[in-house]
Task: structure prediction
Amino acid sequence: MQRTALVLGVLLTVLAAPCWSAAGVDDYPMTAQAIAPGVYAVLTPARDFPNAQNKGWNSNSAFVVTDGGVLLFDTGTSQTIGEALKRAIAKVTDQPVRWIVNSHGHGDHWLGNAAFYREGVTIYASPRVKQRVETEGQEWISRFERMTDGATGHSDVIVPNFEIDERTEAVIGGLRVVFIPSGNSHSPGDILVWLPQRKVLLAGDVVYSDRMPSTFDSDVRQWIRFLGDLEAIKPVVVVPGHGAVTDAAALRRQREFLSTLWAVVKQGYEDGKTDFEIVPLAREALRQYKAGYPGFDDKLGRDVSHVYLQVEAALF
Ligand SMILES: [Zn+2]
Result:
């Protein structure tokens, strides 16, 4: 009897297991789009989180072809997505990827590292992001597997091997490259890459173009200041972490959006309102941004809640 129960238990476990299967390289139709001489963006059409439909390909990457090799900015949500990216790069150049930047700590921007890593490849990140990759790698892999019904599959976690903790100018493959920390604005340890000779800013998730900004890991007041700093360097092309390639106007729009959000939440807080009561006020004050930020209605409530906590901490 016990044996029958055991067999039945095993059978039910097998039947209840989700029928997940990992996506292959061919599932990701990536193409590199030239955005400046020698600079390319690989843009996802997705505007949402990793899910079964986009198979986890929800973030952008960019790369720079130099005489000495390729500098790659962000590697995607899985090792397989990294492999697809590698294929898209190989259609443009024979040069190997020799330098990688992991813009920030969210796993959809660095789990593809393993597709490119070999002896001699430098992976730049801030100390905070390096630490997150080290400690949170497996967590991100499991989370994305759940979100994508298994499409993202297994990835080897490859930890950055070069720390950048302040604004740093370098010459990479003969090209001037400036690494700019955001001061933890969108998330702890973001780094952007500025190519002064090309007037291109590789912004990661510090800039959102046609997608509603996410504030859950942010420092909104620092973010507002930092967007002002970025406007001052006058980029001509801006590649966001998600959404379409854009320009300096997106920096200003986002700064104004975040400033208004902060002001409305702060006023509401001072008037003794709850975050729930502030949401309709924020919706009204920010309505001009709705058309440009898909996901506005969905995300606004969460953004108000996150900013509410920050306002509370700032005023305490
Ligand atoms: Zn992201």
